Amino acid sequence: MADLTLEVAQLKQQGVVPCLAVVIVGDDPASHVYLRSKQRRAKKLGIRVLVKALAETATEAAVLKVLAELNQDPKINAILVEMPLPKQINQQHILEAINPAKDVDGFHPINLGQLFAGTPRNIPNTPYGVMKLLAHYQIPLAGKNAVVIGRSVIVGRPMAALLMNQNATVTVAHSYTTNLSALTKQADVLVVAAGKANFIHGDAIKPGATVIDVGMNRTAAGKLVGDVSYQEASQVASAITPVPGGVGPMTITMLMYQIVKLTKGVA
Ligand SMILES: Nc1nc2c(c(=O)[nH]1)N[C@@H](CN(C=O)c1ccc(C(=O)N[C@@H](CCC(=O)O)C(=O)O)cc1)CN2
User: Fold this and answer.
1) C-alpha 34 to ligand 1 mean position (Å)
2) What pTM, to 2 d.p., does this model score?
3) Which of 4, 13, 41, 96 has the fewest CB neighbours in a 10 Å radius?
4) Which option is the CATH number for 125-248: 3.30.70.260, 2.30.22.10, 3.30.450.20, 3.40.50.720?
5) pLDDT tens digits for 78-98?
6) Which residue in 201, 202, 191, 164 sits closest to 247, CA to CA?
7) Would you kindly state where each structural domain of the chain is located, as residue ranges?
């Protein structure tokens, strides 16, 4: 991957400072933690971050107004809205209101459509980070069985498209899936984004599989754990991502990469 520090320095020599606008609505503690991580990483690279913080009670109209201003502002290269949003706000209305050319999360239907057409432009950062990890560790995908647990717009759906684009045979499992372990035991690559702590145990994993844990769950004791029982799974899998320190930091890396890409106007 390109050296982002160098690329940002080159842009600055041309008088351009990459700028990300983050819209955050409400007081979700995890969202504020993620925002601070993004700000820290951006600062290290020399990327500007403009934060538009709205109250937990903000209306959908108020968020749409902020987005309309950011869409018009030529100094803003990339926009994202922290998820989840408070209940009174329709997530889909918000995602559709972001200019697709500035949509650094890749959640706009046009960007998701490009991804599903096999011609990706802006790609959701978590699944993009997973693909970079798989490529880095030379995990074969073509002709392999990949099972994705979860069908969210943030992870599951784009993850399935990215794996399919690399010629994996993809199954998407979700809360209505019956006999889940029969599917997971067939998976050469298992991506778990179920949102439930210790949802997948060692006996549900094919020996030698690659296991990607996208889960991020806080225990009552305040410990961060994934969706996979790491101790058990690591006895069976040939490769596994930890939580913390696995997919999460890669999400931020891919975000920074795509901010620079949007600033350069490269597809
Ligand atoms: N607009 C978006 N909202 C959300 C996204 C997203 O991609 N776009 N994904 C998640 C939050 N997220 C990125 O935004 C994110 C989650 C986790 C991490 C991370 O580095 N996690 C650390 C642990 C941090 C902790 O202690 O809590 C790790 O896994 O090591 C970064 C980004 C939901 N919302």
Assistant:
1) 5
2) 0.97
3) 13
4) 3.40.50.720
5) 999 999 999 999 999 999 999
6) 191
7) 4-101, 125-248
Q: Residue holding tokens 């029982």? A: 229
Ligand 1 contact, 193 CB (< 6 A): no
Which of 251, 252, 258 gets mutated to test ligand 1 (max ligand atoms within 8 A of its CB)?
251
Domain 4-101 identical in fold to domain 125-248: yes
The CATH fold of domain 4-101: Rossmann fold (3.40.50)
Q: What is the pLDDT of residues 39-50, one digit of tens each?
A: 999 999 999 999
pLDDT digit string, tens, across residues 192-248: 999 999 999 999 999 999 999 999 999 999 999 999 999 999 999 999 999 999 999
Question: Minimal CA–CA distance to 149: which of 114, 202, 115, 187?
Answer: 187
- Annotated binding-site residue? 181: no
